[in-house]
Amino acid sequence: MPPFESEWRIQDEDDEVELDEQSYSTQKDAILFCIEITPGVLEPRVLESGEQGPSALETIFQAAADLQKRKIVHGPGDAVGIMLYNTSETKGEIVKPHMYLYQHISQVNAPDIQKLLHLLNEADENPDCFPTLFSPTDQPVTMANVFLTCSHVLRDGVPKAASKRIFFFTDNDDPELGDETKTKAARKNVEDLYDLGINIHPFFMVQPGQPFDIHKFYLNVLSNPKEEMTDTVLNVHKSMQKLLDNMRMNEAIKRTLFNIPMQFGEGLTIGVKAYGLVTEQRKGSYRYFSNMGKSMEEAFPKTVYVDEEQEREVPKESIVFGYQFGTGAPEATEEDGDAMQVDAPVVKDKVFYTLEEMKAFRSFGIQPSIKILGFKDIETIPFDANVKHSIFIHPNEAAVTGSNRTFKALLDSMLKKQKYALTRCLFRKNSSLIFCAMIPQAEVLEDGIVDEPAGFHLIPLPFADDIRQPTIERSAHCSPELRKAAVAVIERMKYGPGYIPYQYHNPGLELHYGFLQAEAFGEEYNPEEDFNDTTAPRFQAIHKRAGEQMGAWHEALNEDPEAAEMAVEPKAGTKRKTGAVDELVVRAHFDDDILNKLTVEQLKTYLKAHSQPYSGRKNDLIERVHDWCATHPA
Q1: Which one of 126, 246, 268, 466 is most buried, counting C-beta atoms within 10 A?
Q2: Same domain for 543 and 424?
Q3: Predicted model pTM
Q4: Are the CB atoms for 232 and 202 separated by under 8 Å?
């Protein structure tokens, strides 16, 4: 049986908005680095070049510093802490003996990061810095106490964090030496962590000549019964670089967009969670501050509804929604005489609805859910039949018992028969009903690790009103010689690996974050030296590879008769395009700080004219126009 509606994570706002993954960035994330100190962790590692490199502990500390530097810009409300165990020295009020709480878990801040960077600089000059400060003990701590202390550190440091995670590092595959009593105690404390919503991400390190066997201790202790997959537990790293790469993958918290039921038919319902795999990364939203003399106090926006005639504030609960239809009945004239005395039908020019009625119009009284309507061959869906990016769904065993098995059975059957499901979807109480194509995705493994998880992609399908036909115009044609010359240029310019998004960072965001980090740490920032735009064309390499072919193409272009034709000049006095907005008008609104007075259409038109993104809500559009005007003065 499905749980009560209150147990589903169903969002409900007053205004209809699209699913926006950016709003989830306000949820606080807490990460505790838990590191076991062993002689192998403190020993310098030999690099692939044969030279002596930093120790594993120094590499982990450097990764922790880099993570905090990224979070101070991307997630300034997040918290990070560092705890070590099996140390000869004990530090921290709430830790057990032989535990060292190097950095209390707290909101990321510049002083903590600078302290960590100072330690790393000292370790570069003095290789004995880490072994001296964090020397190992000959009295190891029980793993039950380690996990219990992690719980206490997270509880006292960040009690209100939405997500709590432990990054667990060790090269010791049997810390309890086969003691069943200690193993059961550790298992019990790990289950308590999972019950509290604290996730453990283990990073197992392999020492040269010492294989790491997870079956001795950690496979049984760290496996989560609520999670079907145990790949994170099976993750053993033979090199520090692979460990760091995996840590970067786990750095971003997996925030669910929604948690709603999926209906197969009458009486058969399972729970599913949804994730946004791709979303536009934007700059962090700025805040408003007021100079109060001695300090700068944050100013919070407040929306107030005012009666235009009486000029008084109207309570929000008394607001209704109205629509205008024409001008209503015509006004009476003297010539009408007594004709107006006869009863006549009243023509309304306005209709009003309450908030509940407006929500019912959008959702037709249907509760948020995903309902499967039928199945079709997967090759019948057009590649362009979508209106926004897809949503990835995964079973939620915590909502309905048996969701994993039912979900997997459906997935395997659809993959085998090459079908997709047509679904009716309502993701939020206040959103509009849409139809989606539910396309199956098989699990893909790479080196024994899940690269693409098994699940379904929900692709929103267009209605008839959403489909637009392109303007059919005669395309330009060229001679075979010009086409052949262009093909030669393209062949020389081909990039074998193709476009790999992970290799290219948004240059606008990178430059913005570079300035913010420099300001936070009091450092100098020179974009010409410190900023590397990986998306900038490499002109020297381009001309070296295809310069000769480009010259041949240019000569062929000059000889092509159609290319020599002059474009027809537009007639004078051509009517201005609908929705066009004057640059001076926008600049005037920007100077007066009243960009919110412009309409959404005007904002979008202005952004289009300057080749800027123009999707999203009005506040997002205003912010982009403001940023453009601020960085491009007239």
Answers
A1: 246
A2: no
A3: 0.64
A4: yes
